[in-house]
Amino acid sequence: MDDGGSRIRRRVSLPKRKRPSLGRIFVAPTAAELERGDEKEEEMVAENRRRKTAGLIPVEHNDSEEDMFGDYDSFTENSFIAEADDLEQKYMQLPEHQKHATDFATENLCSESIKNKLSVTPIGNLTELQTDKHTENQSGYEDVTDEPGADLLYDVPSSQAMYFENLQNASNDFGDQFMKERDGRSSSHNTVNEELPHNCIEQPQQNDESSSKVRTSSDINRRTSIKDHLKSTMTGNAKAQTPVFSRSKQLKETLLSEEINVAKKTIESSSNDLGPFYSLPSKVRDLYVQLKGIEKLYEWQHTCLTLKSVQERKNLIYSLPTSGGKTLVAEILMLQELLCSRKDVLMILPYVAIVQEKISGLSSFGIELGFFVEEYAGSKGRFPPTKRREKKSLYIATIEKGHSLVNSLIETGRIDSLGLVVVDELHMIGEGSRGAILEMTLAKILYTSKTTQIIGMSATLNNVEDLQKFLQAEYYTSQFRPVELKEYLKINDTIYEIDSKAENGITFSRFLNYKYSDTLKKMDPDHLVALVTEVIPNYSCLVFCPSKKNCENVAEMICKFLSKEYLKHKEKEKCEVINNLKNIGNGNLCPVLKRTIPFGVAYHHSGLTSDERKLLEEAYSTGVLCLFTCTSTLAAGVNLPARRVILRAPYVAMEFLKRNQYKQMIGRAGRAGIDTIGESILILQEKDKQQVLELITRPLENCYSHLVQEFTKGIQTLFLSLIGLKIATNLDDIYHFMNGTFFGVQQNILLKEKSLWEITVESLRYLTEKGLVQKDTIYKSEEEVQHNFHITKLGRASFKGTIDLAYCDILYRDLKKGLEGLVLESLLHLIYLTTPYDLVSQCNPDWMIYFRQFSQLSPAEQNVAAILGVSESFIGKKASGQAIRKKVDKDVVNRLYLSFVLYSLLKETSIWTVSEKFNMPRGYVQNLLTGAASFSSCVLHFCEELEEFWVYRALLVELTKKLTYCVKAELIPLMEVTGVLEGRAKQLYSAGYKSLMHLANANPEVLIRTIDHLSRRQAKQIVSSAKMLLHEKAEALQEEVEELLRLPSDFPGAVASATDEA
């Protein structure tokens, strides 16, 4: 506020030639100039253009060395130097100033600028320019209000500070005269105060004594432009050691690299237009229009973003129906945190596929706005994350990786650097072991950081009060949907509309008018063909089926009764889809898909490989495929909306449908911007009618904590990490922490037989008995005893490796036994040690295949089996059905079988070949591979904490990489890019894109023409992801170099030197 007047903030982004020069900002015009008005200004502009066209007159240099800045245009564009140079040239053109043009310009720059504090803050590629505008005079000139006491030299790098002081000393003869003239003139004009942000990088003011070391003659100052003087002075400083000035005793000698760094940031920073779009640069709004086609926010989104609780950075839970636009609000809040608050952000998503989809979508924003987007999923992610001094990071993680990330930040004391945590599908906090891990993550953040904001969102929340209490959060909800959703039930050939106002919840809608033959009635008793042909092929349709096998059967059945006309719809594009499926399957194609895709129909479930799923999803999104028969997992996965959603039966596998599941499935109906209406139809039999009527009217299920129910993955893992991270190390503190968890909030509901205190004591006793923690008893007095806990080496290894505590002692035993005779002639032994324990119980070996594979082992590989205690005779007897007297560990036998599958994968790399060899669904084989890669990463972190397992460290690094990508070595650099799977990597490699650098510099338009079945959106996402990854690697290397060159804080002479100075 100036004189109590209201401050008007005008955010400006001026072109180079339209920005006010320093002459207009710092120098008030004379009376003669005012009389000439616009005429004189037009002459100056014309002369300025001629000067820029003709180039600057050659100037003398004090130094014969090569100009270190050359003619680098951007050095003067939009910069302080350019404005100073324009000021000088302006006064060169005025007759009354020609005699001492340089001197007046210099004096004006030094004396006036000292009174007008100037500071620049680089924020990515943006710099905020806030203008407090009062009035402008009629002639168009602007003046600046003085700020006595502000010192320009305190805000600029030392090289510029010394230079400006020299100029000021050299121009003292003119200073008093000029200030008197200025004071006389400035009183007749209104003022404009332009202000730049104050969070600048400041250098201490230099004194006259030290600045005399680089004093130059006033004659040369008069002849040489300010820009060239600055360049010359900075070149001189590059060769000379920076002197230590008396007014900067407490600071270390500034290195040349830091001076140039500050200058570079100041020069390259552009107008910081923070504010127009929910406190974000207008560029963000433009990017949403350009990249996502979002031109306007929904009213609820605007309301949510402007909530008082959001502005005050309170925790928030918000709930809307599926497809309501929840994610956009979260993205804007994340961008605010990254760009405005300059803090890191963590986004937690439920599945790897969604993480990768989000990474691809936000990488373009990161490239344009100057922040990193890092993937934490599967075996990817660095712990602790790279500490960046300039750009901030957006971590996008699965639930498990998000927990590990938070642990590493707490351990390194960096949890406060995390400004915001966003949790999608917050209702998953009530789902099994993954819910327990999510609860642990949020509880630790709440306990250890008071500055981290938590935002949770979901479409299916009921007991919000419990979650609000746990997260200490505000709540916002709306029933908004961009497309109206109509819900129907189908019983026999009658369709009823769900109507909450009706007596029994439904009203008659219509009869199905579709002529069925006798054959069709037998094949399709549920009239699926009639229901889907009402919308396809012009609109899309999803049919949710109870099981994977049912998905495939329904897809084939529908295609049998579709007319031949459906084959002609986008025939060419469907042929491309089939060819691409063959390419990624090395010539293999699922026979079901081969028959259904020509009709625009496909199935979608976990039996597909990730390559196949991605390709089919792309084809569905572009309208090539119009019908998916799918399982319920699609409802919680990637966003694939449809005009009509059909639920084949009110069951998921053998269990009756839950209200939450029902809402998620029907939420896929209605595509914003495409459809005007969405429809859902639940098919049911008469016997299920009553249950279904209850289903559609009952409220959503409550979500309850699974922290205690999931014993080894829940409360014990939590206690181990609390002690390991020193968050809570005694019984009282651990109990206090537990009261703040979601379980603590719900303890009165969930605990019937035991109290929370008893459960806490029991869990700590279990950890002590397993040798994961040790108890220390401290006697504070004769009556008062305190029990403290500290973590053992095994406990730390388990917690760092995020190993399920049910298996940590088994893993330790297996690794220890492996050291006795580790077979390194092949990878089989290492693969066995990294085969996930939790998949073993699900394995049912085909004994004939097992025996066949066993008999083909090399002597070294047979030695591995012998060390593990599995003999060929045992497998042979099992294959022939003979009785076995010798007892063999079933888990070891099954685990070795899964190891054979993984070993074959690494040797052959083709999932199709291996799935046929072992008679397993190819999707299961790929899930096994993904699980092994993730577990291998966990075992690696486990071994890093135990000195005795040093031999495994280097071996497991390479094995983890092999399991993660499972392709030929040349394809690995391409597959590091998010969204590039094996099939796409092969296409890119064949087209000549053989490295990360190739992809980062690729033209998306060329990629579209070169790579089959690649959309423009996908091409842009691949290039953006590659650029992001390349920038991350380059930045990490740069920071490593700076760290190596920096003087250590514990350097022996540093403390003594600081004491002497004091």
Automatic annotation (TrEMBL):
Compositionally skewed regions (Basic and acidic residues) per UniProt: 220-231
Catalysed reaction equations from the record: ATP + H2O = ADP + phosphate + H(+); Couples ATP hydrolysis with the unwinding of duplex DNA by translocating in the 3'-5' direction
GO cellular component terms, semicolon-separated: nucleus; site of DNA damage
Keywords of the record: ATP-binding, Chromosome, DNA damage, DNA repair, DNA-binding, Helicase, Hydrolase, Isomerase, Nucleotide-binding, Nucleus
Compartments where found: Chromosome; Nucleus
GO MF annotations in UniProt: ATP binding; DNA binding; hydrolase activity; single-stranded 3'-5' DNA helicase activity
Disordered: annotated span: 127-152, 174-240
EC number, as in UniProt: 5.6.2.4
Family note: Belongs to the helicase family. SKI2 subfamily.
Purpose: Single-stranded 3'-5' DNA helicase that plays a key role in homology-driven double-strand break (DSB) repair. Involved in different DSB repair mechanisms that are guided by annealing of extensive stretches of complementary bases at break ends, such as microhomology-mediated end-joining (MMEJ), single-strand annealing (SSA) or synthesis-dependent strand annealing (SDSA). Possesses both DNA unwinding and annealing activities. Forms a complex with RAD51, stimulating HELQ DNA helicase activity and ability to unwing DNA. Efficiently unwinds substrates containing 3' overhangs or a D-loop.
Stated name of the protein: Helicase POLQ-like
Phylogenetic classification of the source organism: Eukaryota, Metazoa, Chordata, Craniata, Vertebrata
Name of the coding gene: HELQ
